[in-house]
Design goal:
Blueprint lengths: L1 E7 L15 H4 L3 H7 L3 E5 L10 H8 L4 H4 L3 H9 L8 E10 L10 E3 L7 H15 L4 E7 L2 E6 L6 E2 L17 E2 L2 H16 L2 H8 L7 E8 L7 H5 L3 E4 L3 H9 L18 H13 L4 E6 L1 H8 L2 H25 L3 E6 L16 E7 L12 H4 L3 E3 L3 H9 L4
Parallel strand pairs: 1-11, 1-12, 2-14, 10-11
Antiparallel strand pairs: 2-13, 3-4, 3-6, 3-9, 5-6, 7-8, 12-13
Helix pairs in contact: 5-10, 6-7, 11-13, 12-13
């Protein structure tokens, strides 16, 4: 038996006036979702526990079968695992975005124009983070480059008692009241302020501006946490597992759970990612004897944060394409398989950030197909089976619907 999760990050949404009261999932052309829905269980699942923020960190851990209330210690530490940063128990990792702020002065009056600095490339970002590390790195703070706009600060003997706000939560807002507050607030705010001086005249930014692209004007901190304490996926479920993803968060989870995580050339986490490369990587995982593959697509979430309706629809259609190709591959090449399709959380266009409502899931068992009239979307899912926590997705896959 083989097991596949297709995870469209932030794919769920809310009805939009621009789409005639439909969600992007309803508006998208999804022939493969429709084909599978007719013989699958459709329902909704609560991936974010009460009292926890609806981040991709919490939600993906949940779907993978790890109770976030037990295993979650912060987002950035998981990304630090992927980057290869060695953390001590007393260290704190802090997600460090490259962002675009307006040129208003002073810092408190600047507006968050773009949490991703125009989806800056990994190569450009590396140069900028190296410049920041050269000027601001110290015995207390070290900066490490990641993928695209996503990077990491390590506070040696740091503190998690600092109030930090994700930059995608404050798009087009003045940043003043969202600057770091609390135990490390003044120090981190000063690092943000000084990063603006370092990055303003950097050749990478000058070139981006000349090409009509947004410069990375500042760093921005959020997602702090301590060294993670994850356990082996194989030891928990008795299955060889793999995660195929472009982003450090999922790669870090893979490392922490001792799951295989292939490096896919051209995988970016955006709409321009190497979709076929990731599909082929999943096939390769199964062919090399891996039992459980978790395929993560970041693009729907990115488009949700950007308020990009056409982009989100296009991303969903790409997820549909990938799901169909992998369904046909499994149908042809393995004796039996189970497939789950879902988002980790909703990222509604109307609010441009994550929300906690239950999300639609699809569960297909090649040995026990069902007859269903429900479509795979947010509305129909409310009329299907309800799962009270995300861990039940992996339980459903590994044990079966009637176990």
């Amino acid at each position: 038996m083989k097991y596949l999760v297709v995870l469209g990050d932030g794919m769920a949404d809310r009805p939009l006036e621009e789409l005639g009261g439909r969600t992007p999932l309803e508006a998208a052309e999804t022939p493969n979702f429709d084909m599978l829905a007719a013989k699958s269980t459709i329902g909704s699942v609560k991936t974010v526990p009460d009292g926890m923020k609806p981040g991709s960190d919490v939600a993906n851990l949940s779907v993978l079968g790890y109770d976030p209330k037990v295993y979650y210690s912060g987002r950035s530490p998981l990304e630090a695992l992927s980057i290869g940063v060695i953390m001590n128990p007393e260290d704190v990792a802090v997600r460090t975005n490259l962002v675009t702020l307006s040129d208003t002065e002073p810092l408190e009056e600047k507006v968050m124009l773009d949490y991703s600095a125009g989806e800056i490339t990994t190569e450009e970002a590396r140069e900028l983070i190296e410049a920041v590390e050269e000027e601001l790195g110290s015995e207390k703070f070290r900066f490490y480059s990641g993928v695209s706009y996503r990077h990491c600060l390590i506070e040696y003997r740091g503190s998690v008692r600092t109030e930090l706000t994700p930059p995608h939560d404050i798009s087009l807002k003045k940043v003043g009241k969202f600057l770091p507050k609390g135990e490390m607030g003044e120090e981190l705010t000063e690092l943000i302020r000084r990063s603006g001086e370092i990055l303003s005249g950097h050749p990478v930014n000058k070139k981006r501006v000349a090409l009509g692209k947004r410069p990375a004007t500042h760093i921005w901190f959020w997602g702090a946490g301590t060294k993670p304490k994850l356990t082996s996926f194989f030891n928990r479920f008795g299955l060889k597992g793999a995660i195929v993803s472009a982003v450090d968060l999922l790669k870090g989870i893979a490392k922490g759970t001792e799951m295989y995580s292939p490096c896919v050339k051209g995988a970016t986490g955006t709409l321009q990612t190497n979709w076929q490369g990731k599909i082929d990587a999943v096939k390769d995982c199964f062919e090399r004897g891996i039992d459980y593959v978790y395929l993560h697509f970041e693009a729907p979430d990115e488009c949700g944060h950007q308020g990009d309706i056409p982009g989100k629809i296009a991303a969903i259609e790409k997820v549909d394409m990938a799901t169909g190709e992998l369904y046909r591959f499994l149908e042809k090449n393995v004796d039996g398989f189970r497939l789950a399709l879902l988002p980790d959380h909703a990222t509604p266009i109307s609010v441009r950030t994550h929300t906690s409502e239950p999300v639609p899931y699809l569960f297909y068992d090649s040995a026990k197909p069902v007859v269903s009239t429900l479509k795979y979307n947010e509305k129909d899912a409310q009329n299907g089976e309800y799962l009270p926590n995300g861990q039940m997705i992996t339980k459903l896959l590994t044990e079966g619907r009637h176990a």
